Backbone:
């Protein structure tokens, strides 16, 4: 018999996708944003591009990120 996991209801959610530049974080964030919007959620996004064009892989200046803030009500 499979264990059931508890369901937790949250008022709002913030998710940040982060990885090396070129790992697809912008694409992942964009796709997640599209799917979240389909469900009728209000959302705000914050893409974070690396400052350097070709920073070494695994270095902090080469981190690319995408943050999504969503809720089932208006967010400011």
Residues:
């Amino acid at each position: 018999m499979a264990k059931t996991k508890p369901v937790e209801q949250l008022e709002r959610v913030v998710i940040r996708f982060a990885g090396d530049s070129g790992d697809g974080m912008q694409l992942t964030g964009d796709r997640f944003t599209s799917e979240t919007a389909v469900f009728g959620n209000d959302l705000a996004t914050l893409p974070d591009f690396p400052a350097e064009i070709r920073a070494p892989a695994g270095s902090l200046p080469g981190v690319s990120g995408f943050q999504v803030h969503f809720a089932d009500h208006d967010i400011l």
User: Anything to note?
Assistant: DSSP finds one helix and three strands in the chain. The mean pLDDT is 88.
